[in-house]
Fold this protein.
Amino acid sequence: MWLAGNLFKGSIATRFGRMLHLKRKEVYMECFRILGVHESADQNTVRHAYLDLVKRVHPDSGTEEASAERFQQVDEAFRVLQEKFAKGRRNIQEDEEEAMEFDIKHTAPQHRQYLSNEGIGVGTPFQRQKQYQQVRAMKAQERVLEHRIDKAAAGEKTLMSKGGSHFRKHAIKTKYGIDRVVEDLIQEAMSKGDFNNLNGSGKPLSSAQSQNPYLDFTTHKLNKIMLDNGFTPEWISLGKDIRDAIAQLKTKLRQERKYYGEWPLQRTEDLAAWKVFTLNHQDDVQQLNKLIDKYNLIVPILKNQFFRLHLDRMAEPIFKDPELQRNVIRPEMRAKPSSNIESQDSSSTSLFSLISKLL
């Protein structure tokens, strides 16, 4: 409102007297006339007309039409129309027949003692300053109330039909003025189609860029850089090696199962053979447990951790499997029983060498 008041305090003020009572439609028509465009012009046309006029009437342009007063009128007319277009995008309905009242501010006489604080207040300068701040606070409350009334009126028409499609009312942000300015610029650019050529426009977001919520940001970025360069994080490669070593150990247990009776072992020869087997693979299990401890410290996801290995626990489900053979005589026992330990040592060499390389 104050923009329009400043706009018409010149030539129009002399025609209407001290107080201006103008309709909104008359104000907008006068703004279109000052900018030299038709009243049905859109925002883009108004902007081009404003830029063309500013280049000619700016006081520093050096042209014959240069005038500070003319430049101020053009600038304020453009701002009034910008506010009109912004309200139109938010579906805020205005009564064009509503009268707008503008008070023409006169220059204070030079013989007055106090010309600061807009001539408000009496008393000492400190008292006048305090009274002036109170008046400003009251005016601010009035403006907030007017804005809430406009917002409530716009809320009644949240959805509007245009060409068969529905458009949601833009949420008005009032906390910071810059939010509204930026939102206006974004909406204007979208209406002009400036965002239509963006990469991935109209397509769903790629799930490949989603970050693991259980992984911190630094580790996520490091893993991404390593994967892009052909490297694998240590915990992934270490976990694969541990699973391979466990699979080899289970394979040996299945091969060893056929030389024993029912579980739990009761016969003396079965207990002795099992003791020899556990002693031969004791170092392998210990080193594999060290790898598991190291893996559990660096793996970022708790559910991916491994339990420490125990041969008795690993052997129980395998020895209880009814599909595996039982009570088969060892070939080495017939020829040379003393070579049993040596054969089992040679069979565990590959597993032991694999774990040694990992450590």
